[in-house]
Structures are given as structure tokens and as C-alpha cells.
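Morning!

As promised:
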Amino acid sequence: MPESAPAFEDVNERAREDWKRDTSPFDRVRSVMRTAYEPMSAATVAEKALTSEQTARKHLRSLVEHGYVAETASPDSTGTLYQRSKDSLALEQARRILDETDTETLSTHVLEMREELREYGDRFGANSPDDAVRSRADIDPETLLEWRTTRRNLAFAEVALALSAVENPTGGAEAV
Amino acid sequence: MHFDTGEGDSHALRGSIDVTKLDAFRDAFSAIEPMATGEIDDRLNPRELRLTIPYGIGEAETTIFTVRWTTADDYNIHYSDTSGRNLRWDIHPHDFSTPPDDRHFHPPPDASSTDIDVEASCLRKSSIEVVARAIHLLWRQALDEESMANVNAGTNQP
């Protein structure tokens, strides 16, 4: 059993202070960028990572060099924007899948998920969840969440399957 | 196993379940609670993260946090324990009378979804790291007090 609980006036503030105390600015910038799917300025990253803009910029440059973060020009071209590299995100999830799953299970599940998406498509007469929303199909929010989630998960599983075929060309993955 | 929010379709999370955010929540929570073990329900088609801690409030032998977090940053963070307590912090659209915004709290002992029971959440909209730490602080407070009475107060001043 741990020692007694810390005191705090505001749990949100205390959690921010603890995060800052326990981690380095680099760790926090990387944490912020891990799920940064929309482009952000260095100033925004700095604010979220509880550090200075100068420090955030330095670590962002390093993360760009390592392929973790991608740079994009801002639409009004006032500065550089940063977001998680899609390649790096897809590889992170594909690696986790391959660490925890054998190729046969992976192949079987990919087929099942493709079939599930085909069924959603037929049922709502749409190629994608967004397409179904645009065409005002009669679809409830819970089903929409399920469809979108399987779609996202299948994308990662397909990357894992392709990666396993590259790494083990004599394996069973080519059967899919 | 999926917990049942008992709220029906108008309370669904927006976006899609984001496995990278579930991994990030597990990493953040495990860093401050080394006894916690985290499991994604199905690595190939994930829906939720389950964090299990081998002790709990009062007589409870096991504590479980079940987390769903989406690309749109809606979430359910559901607490349950082996003494049968349930409660949940949520962000998603809802049609309860209060609170007016998407952040809300389903109180113990049964994570009630009855309109008059649902409260404002003490958790601000924050990054996964900060929310995971805030949840841990609130739970530690309840452990000390051996009571859920202040779990959503957001303040702990002995």
C-alpha cells in the first residue's frame, strides 16, 4: 500500500505540476506529438508540453530528424507546423500488433474485419462512415463509432500484415 | 468484456476509438502506479484499455479502470472494484439536464445515469498524461479516505 495521498487545491493543476516534475521537456514534447494528428505551431506544442517555445522547437527538430514528427507549412505561411508522422504512427501500431500476434491469427482477423466493413457498406449503401453521414443514411452514433473504429484498426492491421510478408516472405501471409 | 454505459445511442463517443491514445493512457498511468497492469482488449481490433490494480478502497481487493478514448478526444473512464462500486468520468454529447457541456460524471455506487444524479466533472479537458495523473490523484484520495464521497470533488485539503 502506498503512502498517504498528496494534497491538492485543484486536481487538474496538481496533475500538470506532477507531470512537469516527473518528466523531461523532451519526454513531454514527444508525448504531446504522439497523438498530434492535426498540425500545430511550436508555440501550441510548448504550451501543451509545459515548456518554452524555444525548447519545444529544439526537441521538435530532433523528432523531425528521427521521422517521429512531420513538418508542414502553415496555410498563411507564417511559420512551420508540426504533426505526428503518419508513417511513424502506422509503424508503431503495426509493431505492437506483430509483437502480440502470430501471422495466422493476423491474416484471419484481417479477413474478418474486411468482411465487417463490407457488411456496413452494404447495410448503409455507403463506402465509408463519412460517406454514410453525408448521404444522411439512417445510422445511429454507436454503430458509427463501431464502423469508424474497425476501419481505423483494419488500416493498422493491414500495415502489420504487409510488414510480416516483407519480413517473412515464405510465411503464410501471402494467402490473404 | 465491455462495460455497459446504459445510456443508449444518443450518448455515443464521437470519432473512432484510438488505440494509440489507449496505449498512451496505459503508459502514463503505469509510470505513476507500478502495480497497475494494462491490457488492450483485442490488439487487432481494439475497443478499450483495462487497467487492473491488485488492491483498492476499503475491502476491495482489486481496482479496475476501463478506458475508451477517441480520435475526437471524447472518453469514458470507468472505475469499478471487487466491492461492486462503479463510477465514471465522461466526455461526449449527452441529453442530461446538467451539466451544460460534454464533460460529466456518473456518481457511485453504480455510475448512475439517472438524470438528477449526473454531475459536472472535476476534470478539465486536458492531455492524456494530465488526465491519467488526475484520475490517479482522485483515486489515491479515495484510498486514504476509504470512501468515494469526495472522488469527484477535485480538491484534497486535509
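The radius of gyration of chain B is 15 Å.

Hope this helps with the figure draft.
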